[in-house]
Amino acid sequence: MYKYRLKKSIFINFYVIIIISFLLLLILTLYAFHKAIALSPRFQIQETNNEDHKLVLTYGNSEAMKDLARESNYTDMLAVDYLSNGKTLDATFWFKGLTPDLASIYNEPFRKVAYGLLIDADPDGKTGYNGADYDYYVLAADGKFTGYLYQLSLTGGYRLLNHTEVSFNSTSGPNNVHLSLDLSSINYPSKYDVLFYTAESFKSNEVREYTDWVNIPPPKLEMITIPNNILIRQGQEQLIPARVVSSSGFPIESIINVTLNNLYLGFNSSELHLGIQRVQPPLFKITVPQQTAVGTYTVPLIVKIREPSVATITKPISSNLRGGMVDRVQLSKKYPTIGSITLPVNLTITVIPPSTISDQFKDFWGTYGQFIGIFAGGFVGAASVELFNMRKKSKENK
Fold it and tell me: Given this model, what pLDDT does residue 224 score?
């Protein structure tokens, strides 16, 4: 009996251990799955160009602050590259050159330079400060480089969430500044918009320069042709009107440029000759040499689109860094900017054999058949009436 009870106890304990192990494994799996699905979108490197180069006096009343910023080149962005692995958002600000060296302002009293980004972390444009829910920037001042993350309120209030000292050597180069935002600090948004900016201040005067807002995940562009299925015979050419649409639904105000993507190795330009007759709206001239093989071809294009947006100021970088209120007068200020995005898009062409006599007849009849039918019908009808009248007159004469 004792041995039986012992075996039963061992079996029960073993069974309990298996159940507990299974539950722990299930919990860990669910936790890992939750962490995986909680990540923000991943995407490869994107670039937004800053073509406006407009300095805005955001605080103070000294226009001389703009001249100081132009001389230093600390705020004059050329472009911003950005990418994400789902855990962090990395952005690189590109300049003609940070001269004099950015580190030289460390010992200048009352002078500060910041590189930052505004984040609209939800689809509700009424939350946050003019739509921006968070403000993250790296500030060069007081002999150090420090990163700050603020939560912004509709009321104009701002609250410091965290700040960390950043290594200057890993953040700044001779012509660039790099920022890295931990997306867990803003709760891994599934969709968000970002606006990049630079700021320079001296005492109570501050100027900023903005890019446009960019969508994350980045939108995809599609080339819609008219008609949708483009068929071109060997040895012929055709004009193809088209339009560009976006997967994100944002309005495409204007197309700056359309070029052939020469980096795409799968396309041989000798098989299809592309001529861009017009950019806005796109009009292409496709020439198919006689020797081009029959089949479907993808023409890789690069489309550069102008994307107007509205930039907004936030708290001045010279204010209380712990938290506070933005000047209520500034709430009504909005600064339009002009930015651009560059994205790939494909044009699909199907090459078919040269037309035979039968095809030529079908094409001719497809084009003129209806007119010929109407004309022939009218002619037959008129001839029938005339014949009927002739027969009637003949009977009357008899």
Answer: 87
